Amino acid sequence: MRLRTLLxxxxxxxxxxxxxxxxxxxxxxxxxxxVHRYAVLSVPxxxxxxxxxxxxxxxxxxxxxxxxxxxxxxxxxxxHFIDIDRYGKYPFSELPRRYEExxxxxxxxxxxxxxxxxxxxxxxxxxxxxxxxxxxxxxxLFYASNLGHYIADAHVPLHSVENYDGxxxxxxxxxxxxxxxxxxxxxxxxxxxxxxxxxVGSPLDEAFLIVLESNRMVxxxxxxxxxxxxxxxxxxxxxxxxxxxxxxxxxxxxxxxxYHELLGGMVERRMQESIKRVASYWYTxxxxxxxxxxxxxx
Length: 298
Ligand SMILES: [Zn+2]
Description:
By secondary structure, the chain is mainly α. Helices cover 60% and strands 4% of the residues. It contains 16 helices and two strands. The chain is globular. Residues 25-26, 65-66, 80, 149, 153 line the site of zinc ion.
């Protein structure tokens, strides 16, 4: 059942669209911080003197790329996603995985505007490696925290498709419902934990692997959103609140409870996989930098 069929008045529809949460850059602030918090705890002992000492900074700075996106959407925005379904059918083999080759085939403007998160991950992994090799504290903090953000974003299913916010299927706002509201509401039931790290042989191939994983989940993200609304009246589907004299419509707790159940732990799994990947990329940069002693860096 589509949203429109549930809404009786056109005015209500307009209000709902206006007031439903609209952030589509990435996991909400809360989820990004959680991913970084556990990623810091996941790095091997030899890296801990630095990562534990600067844990607060690494966690707080997990949001920097989104802050840049708000200021400079045109430049920063595409680093957070890839609409890979603009390149044919899964597994999108017609898209060359190397950036230069993709640009040669489709043109820079097309490739850049379709989103570049896999290449951003590759680029920032190389820069983090260099920063570690040179033991440059500020650069390590910048590239580690920011790289972690892009890796976590690539784990969000809707960061891999053109219909990133349900705008093409009458499901506007599903982006934030999935990646921000669900983790905020159900975090207490998640059993997130530090993860073992793995050396990433090819940061670029791994980034595309993450995107393909995400892409396989898109159908469920969208279909379960619709299923969660089935049979609910307008009054059950929306929570109506008054704020500063204005009426605001938000999806109800009943809807979120159903969506959470229907997804069967998908959000939690993607957060846990983000933790593992973020820590593994940090570890990989450190290994490739020659395993420098980073403890005591000022
Ligand atoms: Zn983002």
